[in-house]
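Renewal narrative, Specific Aim 1. Our central claim is that a sequence can be written position by position from structural information alone. The example that follows is taken directly from our test logs and has not been curated for this report. It begins with the structure tokens describing the chain, in the order in which they were read.
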């Protein structure tokens, strides 16, 4: 029988494969080593292949697509409900094969090597930023034990630390001074790494037409624009802007029953990093808009009159996500008064 659908349970070295025919009958159960994957699928007739969006999933998706197969990636939380028995590799491959066959399944866009490289820059920068914050808080906490208080903000540590180390009357032991000097140098190195990665991201941003187009939207800079372009890929994979906003977790979570609609807070699904960038960018827009006379009477002003600033920031982030979809799909440039001009 011809294999039409295959589910692959990914791993580092051992992969479990489960295949069915057009009638849903199991015709393939096989375990493959890493070096056996490409020869096996190269000799297999073209079929649909499903995988969970785990580590190395995009690599294998690109490799299998080069062989002519149709590859679909799924978020693990959407595959989990199809599990019927205890967990093992064979059972996982079977439920992946079943899940990818569902007509209403939500799929993850497959990223190419260029997109993965840009997102790797973002993830590395994000890691350095977190490490920098941890190091700054550690320095501030250690100095507080000796009665030296530094105001919040990393910039204050850079300004105050040389003065503290040079002050011979603040009662700091020599060993402690050496430690603080070491931690300060580590903080400077982390800050240097963050700045260098930002330069690389901005260089990519200036060379990418779609990223520069998104940066025209208020609340989106080079960091947010480049990460959105690299993560979304082909925006036509989403039917409309609301679907993209839902993919980012910016739409209300529903808990409706008995015909009574109940809307809760945002679902927070999807990429936390992208959602954070959009919401923080919206907060910046709100902070600036409050000081402008032209802000009165705008859509954002109306939202802020009815809701608090946090809700308004999420609403603006949702709106920006829909604008992102429209610009990428239709190839337009951002226009401030687009709605008024159309009316």
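The sequence written for that structure reads:
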């Amino acid at each position: 029988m011809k294999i039409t659908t295959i589910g692959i349970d990914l791993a580092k070295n051992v992969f479990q494969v489960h295949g069915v025919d057009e009638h849903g009958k199991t015709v393939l159960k096989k375990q493959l080593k890493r070096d056996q994957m490409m020869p096996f699928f190269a000799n297999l007739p073209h079929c649909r292949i499903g995988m969970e969006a785990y580590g190395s999933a995009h690599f294998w998706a690109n490799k299998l697509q080069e062989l002519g197969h149709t590859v679909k990636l799924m978020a693990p939380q959407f595959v989990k409900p199809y599990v019927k028995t205890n967990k093992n590799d064979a059972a996982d491959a079977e439920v992946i094969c079943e899940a990818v066959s569902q007509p209403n399944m939500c799929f993850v866009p497959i990223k190419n090597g260029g997109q993965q490289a840009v997102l790797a820059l973002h993830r590395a920068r994000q890691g350095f930023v977190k490490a920098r914050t941890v190091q700054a808080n550690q320095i501030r906490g250690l100095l507080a034990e000796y009665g030296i208080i530094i105001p919040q903000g990393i910039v204050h540590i850079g300004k105050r630390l040389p003065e503290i180390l040079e002050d011979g009357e603040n009662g700091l032991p020599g060993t402690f001074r050496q430690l603080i000097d070491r931690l300060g140098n580590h903080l400077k190195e982390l800050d240097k790494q963050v700045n260098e990665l930002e330069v690389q991201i901005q260089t990519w941003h200036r060379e990418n037409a779609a990223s520069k187009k998104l940066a025209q939207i208020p609340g989106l800079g080079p960091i947010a624009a480049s990460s959105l372009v690299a993560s979304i890929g082909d925006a036509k994979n989403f039917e409309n802007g609301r679907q993209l906003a839902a993919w980012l977790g910016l739409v209300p979570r529903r808990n409706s029953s008995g015909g009574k609609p109940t809307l809760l807070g945002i679902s927070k699904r999807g990429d936390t990093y992208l959602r954070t960038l959009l919401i923080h960018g919206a907060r910046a827009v709100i902070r600036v808009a409050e000081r402008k006379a032209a802000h009165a009477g705008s859509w954002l002003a109306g939202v802020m009159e009815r809701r608090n600033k946090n809700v308004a920031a999420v609403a603006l982030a949702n709106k920006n996500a829909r604008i992102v979809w429209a610009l990428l799909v239709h190839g337009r440039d951002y226009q401030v008064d687009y709605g008024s001009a159309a009316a």
